[in-house]
Write the structure tokens for this entry.
Amino acid sequence: MSSGCPSSTGSPPRSAGPPADLDDLFAEEAIARPYATFARLRERDPVHWNEKFGLWVVTGYDPVVWILRHHELFSSGVIRGVEGAPYPPVLPEDAPLFDEVRTFRADQLVEQDRPEHLEQRKTVHSFFTPTAMEGWRPFVRRAVDELLDELWPRGRMNVVTDLAAPLPVRIIARMMGVPREDMDTLRGLADSILHLNRGEPDRLRPLTEGIRGIVEYAGPFVEERIRNPGDDLISALAQGENDGVFTRHQVLVNTGLMLFAGHETTMNLICNGLRAFIEHPAQWDRLRADPDRFARTATEECLRFDPPVKSTQRIVAREAELGGKTLSPGERIRWIIAAANRDPSVFEDPDRFDIGRQPNPHLSFGSGIHYCLGVALARIEGQEVFRGLARRFQRFALETDELRYQPSIQFRSIESMPVAWSVPG
Amino acid sequence: MVRIEVDHGLCVGNAMCVATAPRVFAHNENRQSTVVDAGGDPAVLVLEAAANCPVSAIRVLDAETGRTLFPCEP
């Protein structure tokens, strides 16, 4: 079957692509300043065959939406269905650990296609609806207040480790219904699992420790809640086993997924958003003048302007036509959210950071059947953090000359973000 | 009988509504949700679909009185 994209550009096929330097997705320039790199690619070849990595790279807004909404043409089984060594490379002695990582990730909800995906998503979908999540807003606000009240008198913090990392874990742990005294254990595990996104050659060891740790930690909770379900998130997943939708391994893996999926992404929303505000002081002043009014649209603009997830991938399942190119089954396809969100055919003056922007149909949560499960929670977390910061802090100063990013094509993650502010008296 | 409105400025084609009330909702050519038959499934399923929409794009009204059934008025 072949399907046409409404936004076909009629550009010439594979060979006439941009120069090879735009193909190096891990080049220092592409990691540090992805927007300039991907804008050039979007202008020249919005559906591009990347020779260096042997995959399609899609940067135009319309083709990305088209891919996201045609799930039957593109499989999400990018780990389970495809052989290959980890990239960036890992220590040779750690290579056997990769199979363990693959087995873990292959059972994640995000790796599934229909019909399994729908049945699995239904188990947790109602937990995360906008209405259900609004019930959590007071708890999120309190968690933000507690953290910021503690940080404020210090006059400085590392945004990554002092604010962005602890907050989402504190919230998801409460949703999972695990005891408060386990918070340090869970944070340790969550931090280990963050190595999924790292580029260091020795990352597989801490990562597998995190994976084994969460499976071991969650085991007794799952066991107990299969028999005595509550209204928490682990109970919702465990009910999936009772209903024959999940195996035990899938319940445990997806408990880990819930811990991870909202962790790195929310961290990036907080860090990247705060960076945008530091670099656009007029927009920061605008938020400070009326945090209740702007918290919502400001969070959307942070998500659009410097998205937590830069890009996502699929495997072509059925032949498809896109942008005048033919995509063949088995080929890997990656779309760049960071490029689509700056497409001038959709966003007026796309490189301007404007916290009042409306409408703002960014693709930072995806679209279609895999649309971010935690979207409502992520929005509330972002809104409450930016609101809480704007109410307390007058001005932040970056205490470093250069912000470095994890060498990842998927995540836009600042490694370390020291900031300072003046505390009167 | 209910009247159903889908906001296409919000709809992301998540298709949870199509899965929940398949005789009421279907995808159009943009893969966004449209109402094919408001009475195709029991109203309780329509309300469930509206409540489960990840972007709150679905509004349900009483067709006779015009009263909003979802989202619930505070």
Observations:
- The first helix of chain A runs from residue 28 to 32.
